[in-house]
Amino acid sequence: MFVWFLFACNSAFARDAVPGWQHDRWLSLLHIKNGTPTITDPAFILTQDDFSPELEWQATLRLFAQQPQAICRFPARYRLLQESGTSLPEFPDCPEYRVFLQRVPVDQVSVIYASENLTSPSSMLGHAMLAAEGVRDDGFYARHSVSFFTVLDSINPIKVLWETLIKGKEGFFLVKPLRAHFEFYNLAEQRNVWRYELDLDAGQRALLQDHLWELRSVKMDYFFHTQNCATVSADLLRLVIPQLTTGDWVTPIDLVKAVNRSGKIKSIEITPAAKWRVRMLEDTVPQELQDAVYQWQQGEIDKLPQVGGEDGFLLREMASAVLDYREQTGTDDTEQSRKKTAALRQSIPDSPEFSDYELTLDHYRSPLKTPEDAHYSFGYQSTEKTDWLSLQWLAVGHGIEDDNRQYFAENELKLFDLSLRASPQREALRLNHLQLYSARSLTPWDRFTGGISGDFRVGFYSLADDNLQRQTAFNIHGGVGITLAASADLRLYALLNGGWYRNNDADFLYAEPEVGAYLYEVFGMKSWLRYQPRFAPDRKTQQQLTLTHSIALDESALIAEVSRLAVDGKYEHAASVNWRWYF
Hints:
By secondary structure, the protein is of the alpha+beta class. It has helices at residues 2-8, 12-15, 24-29, 53-66, 75-83, 95-103, 157-167, 178-188, 202-214, 229-238, 252-261, 274-282, 287-298, 309-328, 335-346, and strands at 32-33, 36-37, 108-114, 127-135, 141-150, 169-177, 193-198, 221-222, 265-271, 375-383, 387-398, 410-423, 428-442, 453-464, 470-485, 490-502, 507-511, 514-520, 525-534, 542-553, 556-567, 570-582.
Protein backbone atom coordinates (compact mmCIF):
# COMPACT_ATOMS: atom_id res chain seq x y z
CA MET A 1 0.00 0.00 0.00
CA PHE A 2 2.80 2.46 0.86
CA VAL A 3 4.35 1.88 -2.60
CA TRP A 4 1.05 2.76 -4.25
CA PHE A 5 0.92 6.01 -2.25
CA LEU A 6 4.43 6.78 -3.37
CA PHE A 7 3.44 6.92 -7.05
CA ALA A 8 -0.23 7.91 -6.86
CA CYS A 9 0.29 11.68 -6.66
CA ASN A 10 -0.17 13.88 -9.71
CA SER A 11 3.03 14.77 -11.51
CA ALA A 12 3.10 18.41 -10.49
CA PHE A 13 6.77 18.75 -11.36
CA ALA A 14 6.33 17.22 -14.81
CA ARG A 15 3.68 19.76 -15.73
CA ASP A 16 5.74 22.67 -14.40
CA ALA A 17 8.19 24.51 -16.63
CA VAL A 18 10.21 25.44 -13.54
CA PRO A 19 13.10 23.02 -12.87
CA GLY A 20 12.38 20.68 -10.00
CA TRP A 21 15.10 22.12 -7.78
CA GLN A 22 13.44 25.56 -7.98
CA HIS A 23 10.05 24.24 -6.96
CA ASP A 24 8.68 25.45 -3.61
CA ARG A 25 8.21 21.92 -2.31
CA TRP A 26 11.85 20.99 -2.96
CA LEU A 27 13.01 24.15 -1.18
CA SER A 28 10.66 23.39 1.71
CA LEU A 29 11.89 19.81 1.86
CA LEU A 30 15.44 21.12 2.39
CA HIS A 31 14.31 23.66 5.03
CA ILE A 32 15.83 26.57 3.11
CA LYS A 33 15.54 30.10 4.48
CA ASN A 34 17.03 33.06 2.61
CA GLY A 35 18.89 30.68 0.32
CA THR A 36 20.52 28.74 3.15
CA PRO A 37 19.38 25.47 4.75
CA THR A 38 18.53 25.82 8.42
CA ILE A 39 19.54 22.18 8.94
CA THR A 40 23.29 21.68 8.54
CA ASP A 41 23.60 18.02 9.53
CA PRO A 42 25.65 16.28 6.75
CA ALA A 43 23.41 13.26 7.18
CA PHE A 44 20.60 15.43 5.77
CA ILE A 45 22.30 18.00 3.50
CA LEU A 46 24.53 16.13 1.04
CA THR A 47 26.24 19.22 -0.44
CA GLN A 48 27.10 20.99 2.77
CA ASP A 49 30.47 22.32 1.51
CA ASP A 50 29.03 23.76 -1.71
CA PHE A 51 25.29 23.95 -1.22
CA SER A 52 22.65 24.98 -3.69
CA PRO A 53 19.17 23.53 -4.32
CA GLU A 54 20.30 22.37 -7.77
CA LEU A 55 23.48 20.70 -6.50
CA GLU A 56 21.50 19.01 -3.72
CA TRP A 57 19.03 17.72 -6.34
CA GLN A 58 21.86 16.31 -8.43
CA ALA A 59 23.65 14.84 -5.40
CA THR A 60 20.44 13.10 -4.37
CA LEU A 61 20.07 11.60 -7.87
CA ARG A 62 23.66 10.33 -7.77
CA LEU A 63 23.18 8.89 -4.29
CA PHE A 64 20.05 7.00 -5.33
CA ALA A 65 21.74 5.70 -8.50
CA GLN A 66 24.87 4.54 -6.68
CA GLN A 67 23.21 3.37 -3.45
CA PRO A 68 19.52 2.54 -4.05
CA GLN A 69 19.15 1.54 -0.40
CA ALA A 70 19.72 5.22 0.49
CA ILE A 71 16.21 5.83 -0.83
CA CYS A 72 15.05 4.43 2.51
CA ARG A 73 16.62 7.49 4.17
CA PHE A 74 14.91 9.98 1.87
CA PRO A 75 11.47 8.71 0.79
CA ALA A 76 10.07 12.26 0.52
CA ARG A 77 12.90 13.27 -1.83
CA TYR A 78 12.27 10.14 -3.86
CA ARG A 79 8.59 11.05 -4.11
CA LEU A 80 9.33 14.55 -5.46
CA LEU A 81 12.01 13.31 -7.85
CA GLN A 82 9.58 10.69 -9.14
CA GLU A 83 6.92 13.36 -9.74
CA SER A 84 9.42 15.37 -11.79
CA GLY A 85 9.64 12.51 -14.30
CA THR A 86 13.25 11.73 -13.47
CA SER A 87 14.42 8.16 -14.08
CA LEU A 88 15.02 6.49 -10.72
CA PRO A 89 15.78 3.03 -9.35
CA GLU A 90 12.82 1.06 -8.03
CA PHE A 91 11.87 1.72 -4.44
CA PRO A 92 13.80 -0.83 -2.33
CA ASP A 93 12.54 -2.87 0.58
CA CYS A 94 12.77 -0.65 3.70
CA PRO A 95 11.66 -2.62 6.78
CA GLU A 96 12.18 0.19 9.33
CA TYR A 97 10.43 2.72 7.11
CA ARG A 98 7.54 0.29 6.59
CA VAL A 99 7.18 -0.14 10.38
CA PHE A 100 7.13 3.66 10.81
CA LEU A 101 4.31 4.03 8.27
CA GLN A 102 2.31 1.39 10.10
CA ARG A 103 2.92 2.80 13.58
CA VAL A 104 2.43 6.50 12.72
CA PRO A 105 -0.64 6.74 10.47
CA VAL A 106 -1.63 10.15 9.10
CA ASP A 107 -5.36 9.95 8.45
CA GLN A 108 -5.53 13.35 10.17
CA VAL A 109 -2.89 16.06 10.63
CA SER A 110 -3.36 18.89 13.13
CA VAL A 111 -1.53 21.85 14.61
CA ILE A 112 -1.43 21.68 18.41
CA TYR A 113 -1.02 24.89 20.41
CA ALA A 114 -0.44 24.94 24.18
CA SER A 115 -0.95 28.33 25.81
CA GLU A 116 1.88 30.38 27.28
CA ASN A 117 3.69 29.48 30.51
CA LEU A 118 5.70 32.45 31.79
CA THR A 119 7.46 30.35 34.43
CA SER A 120 9.18 28.24 31.74
CA PRO A 121 11.66 30.07 29.45
CA SER A 122 11.18 27.53 26.65
CA SER A 123 7.36 27.85 26.77
CA MET A 124 6.78 31.49 27.67
CA LEU A 125 5.40 32.11 24.18
CA GLY A 126 3.37 28.91 24.24
CA HIS A 127 4.29 25.73 22.42
CA ALA A 128 3.36 24.54 18.94
CA MET A 129 3.68 21.11 17.41
CA LEU A 130 2.00 18.89 14.86
CA ALA A 131 -0.15 15.86 15.52
CA ALA A 132 -0.63 12.82 13.29
CA GLU A 133 -3.58 10.53 13.91
CA GLY A 134 -5.09 7.48 12.27
CA VAL A 135 -6.03 3.82 12.42
CA ARG A 136 -3.20 1.28 12.33
CA ASP A 137 -3.39 -2.04 10.49
CA ASP A 138 -4.28 -3.76 13.78
CA GLY A 139 -7.29 -1.46 14.28
CA PHE A 140 -5.69 0.65 17.03
CA TYR A 141 -6.30 4.41 16.77
CA ALA A 142 -2.87 6.01 17.16
CA ARG A 143 -2.21 9.67 18.00
CA HIS A 144 1.35 10.99 17.76
CA SER A 145 2.94 14.37 18.34
CA VAL A 146 5.61 15.83 16.07
CA SER A 147 7.61 18.20 18.20
CA PHE A 148 10.89 20.12 18.22
CA PHE A 149 12.20 21.46 21.51
CA THR A 150 15.24 21.94 23.71
CA VAL A 151 15.99 21.36 27.37
CA LEU A 152 17.02 24.42 29.37
CA ASP A 153 19.28 23.25 32.18
CA SER A 154 20.20 26.62 33.69
CA ILE A 155 18.36 29.20 35.78
CA ASN A 156 20.87 31.89 34.74
CA PRO A 157 18.91 34.17 32.37
CA ILE A 158 22.07 35.52 30.73
CA LYS A 159 23.30 32.01 29.96
CA VAL A 160 19.88 30.99 28.64
CA LEU A 161 19.74 34.02 26.33
CA TRP A 162 23.29 33.39 25.08
CA GLU A 163 22.69 29.73 24.35
CA THR A 164 19.26 30.14 22.73
CA LEU A 165 19.95 33.34 20.76
CA ILE A 166 23.66 33.21 19.85
CA LYS A 167 25.34 29.86 20.45
CA GLY A 168 22.47 27.45 19.90
CA LYS A 169 21.20 24.64 22.11
CA GLU A 170 20.87 20.99 21.21
CA GLY A 171 17.43 20.47 19.69
CA PHE A 172 15.32 17.35 19.81
CA PHE A 173 12.95 16.32 17.01
CA LEU A 174 10.62 13.65 18.32
CA VAL A 175 7.61 11.70 17.13
CA LYS A 176 5.97 10.27 20.25
CA PRO A 177 2.51 9.47 21.63
CA LEU A 178 0.42 12.64 21.86
CA ARG A 179 -1.10 11.68 25.19
CA ALA A 180 2.13 12.45 27.06
CA HIS A 181 2.07 16.05 25.81
CA PHE A 182 -1.56 16.53 26.76
CA GLU A 183 -0.93 15.18 30.26
CA PHE A 184 2.06 17.49 30.72
CA TYR A 185 0.59 20.70 29.30
CA ASN A 186 -3.07 20.28 30.21
CA LEU A 187 -2.78 18.51 33.56
CA ALA A 188 0.65 19.14 35.09
CA GLU A 189 1.10 22.75 33.88
CA GLN A 190 -2.62 23.64 33.67
CA ARG A 191 -2.34 25.10 30.18
CA ASN A 192 -5.10 25.16 27.59
CA VAL A 193 -4.48 23.10 24.47
CA TRP A 194 -6.00 23.91 21.08
CA ARG A 195 -6.13 21.41 18.21
CA TYR A 196 -6.50 22.78 14.68
CA GLU A 197 -7.25 19.95 12.25
CA LEU A 198 -5.87 20.63 8.76
CA ASP A 199 -7.64 20.06 5.46
CA LEU A 200 -5.03 17.97 3.60
CA ASP A 201 -5.53 15.33 0.92
CA ALA A 202 -4.05 11.82 1.03
CA GLY A 203 -1.05 12.72 -1.14
CA GLN A 204 -0.14 15.71 1.03
CA ARG A 205 -0.41 13.66 4.20
CA ALA A 206 1.76 10.88 2.71
CA LEU A 207 4.45 13.39 1.67
CA LEU A 208 4.48 14.88 5.16
CA GLN A 209 4.67 11.40 6.69
CA ASP A 210 7.70 10.59 4.53
CA HIS A 211 9.45 13.78 5.58
CA LEU A 212 8.87 13.04 9.26
CA TRP A 213 10.76 9.80 8.68
CA GLU A 214 13.61 11.71 7.04
CA LEU A 215 13.99 13.98 10.08
CA ARG A 216 13.86 11.26 12.72
CA SER A 217 17.60 11.28 13.49
CA VAL A 218 18.71 14.62 12.05
CA LYS A 219 20.71 16.90 14.36
CA MET A 220 19.28 20.42 14.65
CA ASP A 221 20.32 23.25 16.94
CA TYR A 222 17.58 25.12 18.77
CA PHE A 223 17.53 28.91 18.47
CA PHE A 224 14.80 30.80 20.25
CA HIS A 225 14.19 33.21 17.36
CA THR A 226 15.01 31.26 14.19
CA GLN A 227 14.80 27.52 14.92
CA ASN A 228 12.14 26.80 17.50
CA CYS A 229 9.05 24.62 17.82
CA ALA A 230 7.02 27.00 15.64
CA THR A 231 9.58 27.55 12.87
CA VAL A 232 10.21 23.83 12.43
CA SER A 233 6.46 23.14 12.41
CA ALA A 234 6.01 25.92 9.82
CA ASP A 235 8.79 24.41 7.67
CA LEU A 236 7.03 21.05 7.76
CA LEU A 237 3.66 22.56 6.86
CA ARG A 238 5.03 24.61 3.96
CA LEU A 239 5.81 21.30 2.29
CA VAL A 240 2.05 20.67 1.95
CA ILE A 241 0.65 24.22 2.36
CA PRO A 242 2.80 26.35 0.03
CA GLN A 243 0.66 29.44 0.67
CA LEU A 244 1.65 29.41 4.36
CA THR A 245 3.41 32.73 5.02
CA THR A 246 5.32 33.67 8.16
CA GLY A 247 7.97 36.17 9.13
CA ASP A 248 11.59 35.36 9.92
CA TRP A 249 10.84 35.21 13.65
CA VAL A 250 7.95 32.78 14.13
CA THR A 251 6.27 32.23 17.48
CA PRO A 252 3.69 29.54 18.25
CA ILE A 253 0.89 32.13 17.99
CA ASP A 254 2.30 33.26 14.63
CA LEU A 255 2.11 29.70 13.35
CA VAL A 256 -1.52 29.27 14.39
CA LYS A 257 -2.50 32.58 12.78
CA ALA A 258 -0.59 31.75 9.58
CA VAL A 259 -2.39 28.41 9.29
CA ASN A 260 -5.69 30.21 9.83
CA ARG A 261 -4.86 32.72 7.06
CA SER A 262 -4.04 29.85 4.71
CA GLY A 263 -7.64 28.67 4.91
CA LYS A 264 -6.55 25.12 5.72
CA ILE A 265 -8.16 24.76 9.16
CA LYS A 266 -10.88 22.13 8.96
CA SER A 267 -12.01 22.14 12.60
CA ILE A 268 -10.99 23.56 15.99
CA GLU A 269 -11.05 21.71 19.30
CA ILE A 270 -10.04 23.09 22.69
CA THR A 271 -9.09 21.08 25.76
CA PRO A 272 -9.31 23.59 28.62
CA ALA A 273 -7.22 23.20 31.75
CA ALA A 274 -9.19 22.78 34.96
CA LYS A 275 -7.75 26.04 36.32
CA TRP A 276 -8.94 27.90 33.23
CA ARG A 277 -12.40 26.32 33.48
CA VAL A 278 -12.70 27.46 37.09
CA ARG A 279 -11.69 31.02 36.26
CA MET A 280 -13.95 31.13 33.21
CA LEU A 281 -16.93 29.93 35.25
CA GLU A 282 -16.20 32.57 37.88
CA ASP A 283 -17.07 35.11 35.16
CA THR A 284 -20.42 33.37 34.58
CA VAL A 285 -21.73 31.61 37.68
CA PRO A 286 -23.84 33.75 40.08
CA GLN A 287 -21.90 34.81 43.18
CA GLU A 288 -24.18 32.98 45.64
CA LEU A 289 -23.57 29.71 43.79
CA GLN A 290 -19.81 30.31 43.77
CA ASP A 291 -19.99 30.82 47.54
CA ALA A 292 -21.87 27.54 47.87
CA VAL A 293 -19.25 25.65 45.84
CA TYR A 294 -16.44 27.09 47.97
CA GLN A 295 -18.16 26.24 51.26
CA TRP A 296 -18.97 22.75 49.95
CA GLN A 297 -15.41 21.91 48.88
CA GLN A 298 -14.09 23.35 52.17
CA GLY A 299 -16.44 21.08 54.13
CA GLU A 300 -18.43 23.96 55.58
CA ILE A 301 -21.69 22.62 54.11
CA ASP A 302 -22.61 18.99 53.44
CA LYS A 303 -24.16 19.34 50.00
CA LEU A 304 -24.69 21.75 47.18
CA PRO A 305 -28.07 23.42 46.75
CA GLN A 306 -30.57 21.84 44.37
CA VAL A 307 -30.86 24.30 41.50
CA GLY A 308 -32.56 23.70 38.18
CA GLY A 309 -32.15 25.13 34.70
CA GLU A 310 -29.06 26.96 33.48
CA ASP A 311 -27.89 27.92 36.97
CA GLY A 312 -28.01 24.27 38.03
CA PHE A 313 -25.97 23.25 35.00
CA LEU A 314 -23.36 25.96 35.73
CA LEU A 315 -23.24 24.90 39.38
CA ARG A 316 -22.50 21.32 38.33
CA GLU A 317 -19.79 22.43 35.89
CA MET A 318 -18.06 24.65 38.45
CA ALA A 319 -18.12 22.00 41.16
CA SER A 320 -16.63 19.47 38.73
CA ALA A 321 -13.95 21.93 37.58
CA VAL A 322 -12.92 22.72 41.16
CA LEU A 323 -12.52 19.02 41.97
CA ASP A 324 -10.65 18.40 38.71
CA TYR A 325 -8.22 21.17 39.65
CA ARG A 326 -7.66 19.66 43.09
CA GLU A 327 -6.92 16.24 41.62
CA GLN A 328 -4.70 17.45 38.78
CA THR A 329 -2.53 19.81 40.83
CA GLY A 330 -1.71 17.40 43.64
CA THR A 331 -3.88 19.05 46.29
CA ASP A 332 -5.24 15.59 47.06
CA ASP A 333 -1.88 14.28 48.27
CA THR A 334 -3.19 11.92 50.94
CA GLU A 335 -5.52 8.93 50.85
CA GLN A 336 -7.94 10.76 53.13
CA SER A 337 -8.14 13.82 50.88
CA ARG A 338 -8.60 11.64 47.80
CA LYS A 339 -11.49 9.82 49.45
CA LYS A 340 -13.00 13.17 50.41
CA THR A 341 -12.79 14.40 46.81
CA ALA A 342 -14.34 11.18 45.51
CA ALA A 343 -17.22 11.57 47.98
CA LEU A 344 -17.70 15.20 46.97
CA ARG A 345 -17.80 14.23 43.31
CA GLN A 346 -20.52 11.67 44.02
CA SER A 347 -22.60 14.36 45.71
CA ILE A 348 -22.60 16.82 42.79
CA PRO A 349 -26.24 17.38 41.77
CA ASP A 350 -27.20 16.18 38.31
CA SER A 351 -30.40 16.24 36.32
CA PRO A 352 -31.56 15.03 32.89
CA GLU A 353 -32.48 18.61 32.03
CA PHE A 354 -28.79 19.56 32.14
CA SER A 355 -28.32 17.70 28.86
CA ASP A 356 -30.13 20.61 27.21
CA TYR A 357 -27.15 22.86 28.00
CA GLU A 358 -23.59 22.92 26.73
CA LEU A 359 -20.57 24.84 27.94
CA THR A 360 -19.12 26.33 24.75
CA LEU A 361 -15.66 27.88 24.77
CA ASP A 362 -15.38 28.91 21.13
CA HIS A 363 -15.99 32.62 21.72
CA TYR A 364 -14.51 33.05 25.20
CA ARG A 365 -10.81 33.54 24.52
CA SER A 366 -8.80 32.46 21.51
CA PRO A 367 -5.15 32.71 20.37
CA LEU A 368 -6.45 33.75 16.95
CA LYS A 369 -7.86 36.97 18.45
CA THR A 370 -4.68 38.21 20.15
CA PRO A 371 -2.79 41.17 18.64
CA GLU A 372 0.28 40.32 16.59
CA ASP A 373 3.26 39.72 18.89
CA ALA A 374 5.74 42.23 17.47
CA HIS A 375 5.41 45.96 16.93
CA TYR A 376 6.91 49.26 15.88
CA SER A 377 6.06 52.46 17.75
CA PHE A 378 6.82 56.06 16.99
CA GLY A 379 5.65 59.26 18.61
CA TYR A 380 6.39 62.42 20.55
CA GLN A 381 7.56 63.04 24.11
CA SER A 382 7.68 66.34 25.96
CA THR A 383 9.73 67.09 29.09
CA GLU A 384 10.62 70.33 30.87
CA LYS A 385 14.03 70.37 29.21
CA THR A 386 13.26 69.48 25.61
CA ASP A 387 10.96 67.69 23.18
CA TRP A 388 11.77 64.28 21.77
CA LEU A 389 10.80 62.06 18.89
CA SER A 390 10.53 58.46 20.06
CA LEU A 391 10.97 55.17 18.23
CA GLN A 392 10.49 51.65 19.58
CA TRP A 393 10.84 48.16 18.14
CA LEU A 394 9.72 45.02 19.96
CA ALA A 395 10.96 41.87 18.26
CA VAL A 396 8.62 39.48 20.08
CA GLY A 397 6.01 39.88 22.77
CA HIS A 398 3.49 42.30 24.20
CA GLY A 399 3.18 44.66 27.15
CA ILE A 400 0.75 45.31 29.97
CA GLU A 401 -0.39 48.39 28.05
CA ASP A 402 -1.56 46.20 25.16
CA ASP A 403 -4.97 44.56 24.82
CA ASN A 404 -4.45 41.25 26.64
CA ARG A 405 -8.06 40.17 27.07
CA GLN A 406 -7.58 37.02 24.96
CA TYR A 407 -4.80 35.70 27.23
CA PHE A 408 -5.44 33.45 30.20
CA ALA A 409 -4.30 36.25 32.52
CA GLU A 410 -2.93 39.77 32.24
CA ASN A 411 0.73 39.39 31.38
CA GLU A 412 3.71 40.93 29.67
CA LEU A 413 6.44 39.24 27.70
CA LYS A 414 9.09 41.18 25.80
CA LEU A 415 12.14 39.83 24.00
CA PHE A 416 14.54 42.41 22.59
CA ASP A 417 12.63 45.63 23.15
CA LEU A 418 14.57 48.65 21.84
CA SER A 419 13.38 52.20 22.59
CA LEU A 420 15.20 55.33 21.38
CA ARG A 421 14.46 59.06 21.49
CA ALA A 422 15.92 61.85 19.41
CA SER A 423 15.93 65.62 19.97
CA PRO A 424 16.33 67.69 16.77
CA GLN A 425 16.91 70.84 18.88
CA ARG A 426 19.78 69.29 20.82
CA GLU A 427 20.93 67.07 17.96
CA ALA A 428 20.90 64.26 20.52
CA LEU A 429 20.02 60.58 20.41
CA ARG A 430 19.29 58.75 23.67
CA LEU A 431 18.52 55.20 24.71
CA ASN A 432 15.34 54.84 26.72
CA HIS A 433 15.85 51.13 27.18
CA LEU A 434 17.08 47.94 25.61
CA GLN A 435 15.16 45.16 27.29
CA LEU A 436 16.68 41.79 26.56
CA TYR A 437 13.93 40.02 28.41
CA SER A 438 10.92 41.14 30.40
CA ALA A 439 8.12 39.03 31.87
CA ARG A 440 5.30 40.15 34.11
CA SER A 441 2.19 38.27 35.18
CA LEU A 442 -0.66 39.97 37.00
CA THR A 443 -2.85 36.92 37.52
CA PRO A 444 -5.73 37.79 39.86
CA TRP A 445 -5.78 35.71 43.01
CA ASP A 446 -8.93 33.70 43.60
CA ARG A 447 -10.00 31.45 46.43
CA PHE A 448 -10.26 28.29 44.30
CA THR A 449 -6.94 28.31 42.43
CA GLY A 450 -4.82 30.96 44.19
CA GLY A 451 -2.57 33.00 41.93
CA ILE A 452 0.80 34.73 42.40
CA SER A 453 1.84 37.78 40.42
CA GLY A 454 5.44 38.35 39.42
CA ASP A 455 7.84 40.59 37.54
CA PHE A 456 11.28 40.00 36.05
CA ARG A 457 13.39 41.92 33.56
CA VAL A 458 16.98 42.23 32.41
CA GLY A 459 18.45 44.86 30.10
CA PHE A 460 19.82 48.38 29.79
CA TYR A 461 17.78 51.35 30.99
CA SER A 462 17.97 55.11 31.38
CA LEU A 463 18.79 55.65 35.07
CA ALA A 464 18.21 59.01 36.79
CA ASP A 465 20.60 59.96 39.59
CA ASP A 466 19.82 62.13 42.63
CA ASN A 467 20.08 65.25 40.45
CA LEU A 468 17.81 63.81 37.74
CA GLN A 469 20.74 63.44 35.35
CA ARG A 470 20.40 60.31 33.24
CA GLN A 471 22.87 57.64 32.20
CA THR A 472 22.44 54.17 30.72
CA ALA A 473 22.79 51.34 33.25
CA PHE A 474 22.52 47.58 33.20
CA ASN A 475 19.64 46.33 35.34
CA ILE A 476 18.32 43.04 36.72
CA HIS A 477 14.92 43.48 38.36
CA GLY A 478 12.35 41.11 39.82
CA GLY A 479 9.72 40.52 42.44
CA VAL A 480 6.49 38.82 43.45
CA GLY A 481 3.13 40.00 44.69
CA ILE A 482 -0.60 39.68 44.38
CA THR A 483 -3.35 40.94 42.08
CA LEU A 484 -6.99 41.28 43.12
CA ALA A 485 -10.07 41.62 40.94
CA ALA A 486 -12.02 44.65 42.15
CA SER A 487 -14.57 44.11 39.36
CA ALA A 488 -14.88 42.38 36.01
CA ASP A 489 -12.74 45.09 34.37
CA LEU A 490 -10.67 46.56 37.23
CA ARG A 491 -7.62 44.89 38.78
CA LEU A 492 -5.50 46.11 41.70
CA TYR A 493 -2.01 44.77 42.32
CA ALA A 494 1.00 45.08 44.62
CA LEU A 495 4.51 43.79 43.93
CA LEU A 496 7.54 43.64 46.20
CA ASN A 497 10.37 44.19 43.72
CA GLY A 498 14.09 44.66 43.96
CA GLY A 499 17.17 44.51 41.80
CA TRP A 500 20.61 45.70 40.84
CA TYR A 501 21.83 48.59 38.69
CA ARG A 502 25.34 48.87 37.28
CA ASN A 503 27.11 51.45 35.09
CA ASN A 504 30.38 53.40 35.19
CA ASP A 505 29.18 55.65 38.03
CA ALA A 506 26.72 53.46 39.88
CA ASP A 507 26.60 49.97 41.30
CA PHE A 508 23.85 49.40 43.82
CA LEU A 509 21.10 47.12 45.04
CA TYR A 510 17.65 48.54 45.59
CA ALA A 511 14.12 47.77 46.75
CA GLU A 512 11.26 49.01 44.59
CA PRO A 513 7.75 48.07 45.71
CA GLU A 514 5.03 48.78 43.18
CA VAL A 515 1.30 49.30 43.58
CA GLY A 516 -1.01 49.85 40.66
CA ALA A 517 -4.25 49.20 38.85
CA TYR A 518 -5.38 48.55 35.32
CA LEU A 519 -8.85 49.02 33.89
CA TYR A 520 -10.41 47.83 30.64
CA GLU A 521 -12.84 50.42 29.37
CA VAL A 522 -15.29 50.85 26.48
CA PHE A 523 -14.26 51.07 22.81
CA GLY A 524 -11.04 49.09 23.30
CA MET A 525 -9.56 51.54 25.79
CA LYS A 526 -7.37 50.61 28.74
CA SER A 527 -5.79 52.58 31.59
CA TRP A 528 -2.82 51.52 33.71
CA LEU A 529 -1.74 53.46 36.82
CA ARG A 530 1.28 52.56 38.96
CA TYR A 531 3.38 54.05 41.77
CA GLN A 532 6.98 52.92 42.27
CA PRO A 533 9.20 54.26 45.07
CA ARG A 534 12.84 53.14 44.95
CA PHE A 535 15.02 52.77 48.05
CA ALA A 536 18.78 52.24 47.81
CA PRO A 537 21.72 52.63 50.23
CA ASP A 538 23.50 56.00 50.00
CA ARG A 539 20.98 57.25 47.43
CA LYS A 540 17.95 59.46 47.82
CA THR A 541 14.52 57.93 47.52
CA GLN A 542 12.97 58.20 44.08
CA GLN A 543 9.22 58.15 43.54
CA GLN A 544 7.74 57.43 40.11
CA LEU A 545 4.05 57.88 39.29
CA THR A 546 2.91 56.85 35.80
CA LEU A 547 -0.44 56.74 34.00
CA THR A 548 -0.70 54.98 30.64
CA HIS A 549 -3.81 55.08 28.47
CA SER A 550 -4.15 52.98 25.34
CA ILE A 551 -6.77 52.68 22.62
CA ALA A 552 -6.77 49.43 20.65
CA LEU A 553 -7.36 49.96 16.93
CA ASP A 554 -7.29 47.67 13.90
CA GLU A 555 -3.76 46.16 13.89
CA SER A 556 -2.49 49.19 15.81
CA ALA A 557 -2.92 51.15 19.03
CA LEU A 558 -2.67 54.74 20.24
CA ILE A 559 -0.80 54.99 23.55
CA ALA A 560 -0.56 58.12 25.71
CA GLU A 561 1.47 58.37 28.91
CA VAL A 562 2.19 60.94 31.61
CA SER A 563 4.72 60.46 34.41
CA ARG A 564 6.27 62.26 37.34
CA LEU A 565 9.61 61.39 38.94
CA ALA A 566 10.35 63.02 42.31
CA VAL A 567 13.77 63.05 44.03
CA ASP A 568 14.38 65.19 47.12
CA GLY A 569 12.12 68.05 46.05
CA LYS A 570 13.19 67.95 42.40
CA TYR A 571 10.80 66.77 39.71
CA GLU A 572 10.92 65.39 36.19
CA HIS A 573 7.63 65.49 34.30
CA ALA A 574 7.06 63.82 30.95
CA ALA A 575 4.14 63.36 28.58
CA SER A 576 4.11 61.28 25.43
CA VAL A 577 1.85 59.94 22.72
CA ASN A 578 2.79 57.02 20.46
CA TRP A 579 1.23 55.14 17.61
CA ARG A 580 1.95 51.41 17.74
CA TRP A 581 1.70 49.13 14.72
CA TYR A 582 1.49 45.37 15.31
CA PHE A 583 2.96 42.95 12.80
